[in-house]
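Reviewer 2 asked us to include a model.

Predict the structure of this chain.
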Amino acid sequence: MSDDKLKQAIRALFRPRQPKGNGATARGETEAGLDLSPRTGFDVVLDQRLKALEEQAAELKGRVNGLMAAVAAAVVVQVVLSLFR
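Predicted model (structure tokens):
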């Protein structure tokens, strides 16, 4: 695929779609040309699970950062104590 064709294909993804017939878009597509809303119950459950997983990952990241800060503080305390001995 040439560069021009690839660029045109990418641009086509971001162009607003024209409504068909009575103003309703095909299969619920939005004006931007892409509808990311869940279509089935499975998609809703999947979205909820992904959000919960993201929250847990953020909490884990905070805990790891706190643990690293505690280890760094312990190292600093040990260095300071060794200087006074």
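Residues 4 and 17 are 21 Å apart (CA to CA). The two ends are 71 Å apart (CA to CA). We have added this to the supplementary material.
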